[in-house]
Amino acid sequence: MIEIKGCGTALVTPFEKNLDVDYNAFRKLVRRQIAGGIHFLVPLGTTGETPCLEENEKIHILEITVEEAGKRIPVITGAGSNNTKEVIRNMQVLGKTGVDAFLIVTPYYNKPTQSGLYNHFKAAAESTDKPIIMYNVPGRTSVNMSAETCLKLAEIKNIIAVKEASSNYSQISEIIRNAPEGFNVLSGNDDETLSLCATGASGVISVASNIAPELLSGFANKLMEGDFEDAADIHHKLMPLFKNCFIESNPIPVKSALHIMGLMENTLRPPLYASEKKTDEIMKQTLKDLNLI
Question: With 0-12 CB in 10 A as exposed, 13-18 as middle and 19+ as buried, what is 278?
């Protein structure tokens, strides 16, 4: 089993103006992340607009990511669904690309019970030899995985971590405090990374690192070194970026920023659409304040 810690980037998926995936831009983004010191990569998550991608597009995105990572850093692919059978199929198909692990979100819309959540993840884990990272984000799924359920699942050998985006510090703290050896907790929200890592979390799956990989990897390095004084300084410097990445639905502001930086078109697939002018102005000022443009 691999250990996932530090800062991982929830990669955006660039599109051309005609809405085709811009694979050349994506490859450049992946190279930029690796050069910026990011510790692991997470394609095909929410930030990647995965619900609007075709299977062949997902496979090619993973092939590029795995090729560029070159075993230097882990690649963790999103494979979640609100259909347990579909999750297992996703892992079978996407796992052939050579990814190192799977990120699986709690089932959305159909609102399973805690018992349903346990059996969903248990079935997924039993269908693969690869590591699994669970993802709890009730703001998007309308279901919260309790600390009790998470810790029960943490006893399964190849369930190695949870990405926690519930913003429920008491719940997350309980998971950190009672987690078995080898099970890690990752922040699912950039602005909560400092507080969670100061009390035992192992890192973050970041949206903001799409924009500023060097700053976020440096931030994570300080946290892993236990240098919380310097980490706090970086946290305060980055807070406007953390906040502004969500002034519209993710990844709309991130794509605005990357477009301003000349890295990709400001194009999203419906039902998401390009940023409003006000968002562009805010992101441009945020980039200037961080000396990124």
Answer: exposed
Catalytic option among 58, 163, 222, 255: 163
- Exactly one of 135, 152, 222, 284 is catalytic; name it: 135
215-267 tens-digit pLDDT: 999 999 999 999 999 999 999 999 999 999 999 999 999 999 999 999 999 99
Query: What values do phi and psi take at 105, rounded to 5?
Result: -80, 155
- What is the radius of gyration, based on Cα positions, of the chain? 18
Q: To the nearest 5 percent, what fractions of the chain are helix, strand and coil?
A: 50, 15, 35
- How far apart CA 279 and CA 190 sit, in angstroms, is 19
* Domain at 6-225, CATH homologous superfamily: Aldolase class I (3.20.20.70)
Determine whether 151 is exposed, middle or buried from the number of CB atoms within 10 Å of its CB (0-12, 13-18, 19+): middle
Dist CA 127 CA 85 (whole Å): 10
Q: How far apart (Å, rounded) are the C-alpha atoms in residues 185 and 195?
A: 12
Query: Is 273 one of the catalytic residues?
Result: no
Domain ranges of the chain: 6-225
Retrieve residue 116's tokens: 């349903």
Question: CA 92, 98, 100: angle at the middle one, nearest 5?
Answer: 90
Q: Known catalytic residue: 278?
A: no
Closest CA to 97 of 67, 133, 132: 67
For the chain, which residues score pLDDT lower than 50? none
